[in-house]
Structure formats: C-alpha cells, structure tokens
C-alpha cells in the first residue's frame, strides 16, 4: 500500500468551484498536482523531493506559487469555513502541528526563568 496522499472525487468536487478559470490551454491533472502540493506541505518536504507520481516538481511549485499569489488557497479556506458554519460544525484536525524551535523562548521572565501561561480550552 502506498503512503502517498490522493484527493478523492468528493473532495475534488468541493474544491473545483474555487479553482481559477483556465485561459487558453486547459490545465491537466488538477487532482494530481493539488494532491502533490498537499503531500509536500503536510510532510514538510522540498519541492525537489516530491514523489514522481505527482508530476514534475517544477509544475507543483509553479502552480502552488501562482495560485497562492492569486489568493486561490485563501478563497478555498474561506469557502470551506463558510460551509462549516452553515452546518454549525467546525472540525479542526491538529494531528500535524509544527512549532518553530524559538517559540519556546519567547515568554521568558527576567533572570531567564520561563513564564508559564495557562490556557482555558473550555471557552
């Protein structure tokens, strides 16, 4: 069994309205390229380390950069979040959470002792 990530038909159907219109030559392999981008982002890989099943790394990078500059990913997130509020359900998956190594040193008191901060998750 492969551990590559692939979007399913239902997921692609929900994302398709947010894709930019193709001008001139039609885009191919939206599922393959978007699945490759998600795989790269989720695993923290370099574009050059993308498995060849997702296509050329240059294609993945170019489309990611272009769509990011155009605000496509922001529209996707806003649209999916708006859909969630209609159902009164918002699900957050925090299984892939990355923290920068310097984040732990940001809340220091004088004297070098760490200042603890409590979080109330009930509210």
From TrEMBL:
Residue span(s) of domain Insertion element IS402-like: 8-77
Q: Which domain of life is it from?
A: Bacteria
- Please name the Pfam families in this protein's record: DUF4096
UniProt xrefs under InterPro entries: IS402-like_dom, Transposase_6_like
Q: What is this protein called?
A: Transposase
């Amino acid at each position: 069994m492969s551990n590559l990530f692939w979007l399913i038909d239902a997921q692609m159907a929900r994302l398709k309205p947010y894709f930019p219109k193709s001008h001139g030559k039609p885009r191919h392999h939206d599922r393959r390229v978007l699945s490759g981008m998600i795989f790269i982002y989720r695993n923290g890989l370099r574009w050059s380390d993308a498995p060849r099943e997702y296509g050329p790394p240059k294609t993945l990078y170019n489309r990611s950069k272009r769509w990011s500059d155009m605000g496509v990913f922001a529209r996707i997130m806003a649209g999916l979040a708006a859909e969630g509020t209609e159902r009164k359900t918002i699900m957050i998956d925090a299984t892939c959470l990355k923290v920068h190594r310097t984040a732990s040193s940001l809340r220091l008191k004088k004297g070098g002792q760490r200042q603890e901060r409590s979080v109330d998750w009930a509210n």
